[in-house]
Specification:
Blueprint: H1 2-35, E1 38-39, E2 58-65, E3 74-83, H2 86-90, E4 97-105, E5 111-120, E6 127-132, H3 138-141, E7 148-155, E8 160-168, E9 173-182, H4 189-201, E10 210-211
Length: about 220
């Protein structure tokens, strides 16, 4: 009798363990689709060839993005890139960029403005180190949410830019985000098709993207 009970208990525990493992794998699969998560370190993409930092200056509108928790309640997101020092731009140095991030809180309707700074890795690199302007010491500012490395994977400068960022826990796993920016709040079909083709070539699934909430956005934030 005891052996029978013990056998049933072992069988129940086995099925419970299998169910837990299955649910964990299912959850990881969902997270991987939404976040672009995976095992190991972040993928490495080379800097965009012949990248011209001065040509991305000006205003950009967020058109699509992968799931990003801080953006759940926000919309009408715009980025504005300006040289931190015009003298550096005129000398074509490895200049720093001032980045103004403007959004609208969809719950309250209130606008929000955040200022940060982006510094390219080198003169012609599309990989930038970004941190927000804050009174905290730099060592703390680098740890704030949103700070870190960002990369413009591809842009035609006049219509769209693909922005990408990735974080990892050593070699255990990583999660990345994608943002698609445009000079307008939406794309014509041929431009969107070009963007999706570029993402596929980079092994980044366009099916991860959702449309940014750009309905009834004010002309000026």
């Amino acid at each position: 009798m005891l052996m029978l009970i013990s056998g049933r208990f072992t069988l129940i525990m086995f099925f419970k363990t299998c169910l837990i493992v299955y649910l964990l794998l299912l959850l990881m699969d969902v997270v991987a689709v939404v976040h672009g998560a995976g095992f190991g370190r972040c993928p490495k993409y080379p800097s965009m060839p012949k990248f011209n930092m001065s040509r991305i200056l000006g205003q950009w509108y967020e058109v699509e993005h992968s799931f990003y928790l801080p953006e759940i309640a926000s919309g009408c997101t715009t980025l504005e890139f300006q040289p931190l020092n015009n003298e550096e731009l005129s000398r074509f140095n490895n200049f720093k960029l001032q980045v103004a991030i403007k959004t609208i809180n969809r719950l309250t309707g209130n606008p929000s403005l955040s200022i940060g700074y982006a510094e390219p890795e080198n003169l012609k690199s599309s990989i930038m180190d970004f941190k927000f302007h804050t009174r905290f010491p730099e060592v703390i500012a680098r740890l704030l949410p949103g700070s870190g490395k960002y990369q413009i994977l591809y842009t035609d400068y006049d219509n769209f830019a693909i922005l990408w960022s990735c974080g990892s826990l050593g070699s255990l796993g990583y999660a990345d985000q994608i943002w698609i920016f445009g000079r307008e709040r939406d794309f014509p079909f041929e431009i969107r098709s070009k963007i999706y083709d570029a993402l596929k070539q980079l092994s980044l699934g366009p099916d991860r993207l959702v449309l940014t909430k750009n309905k009834d956005c004010p002309k000026v934030l």
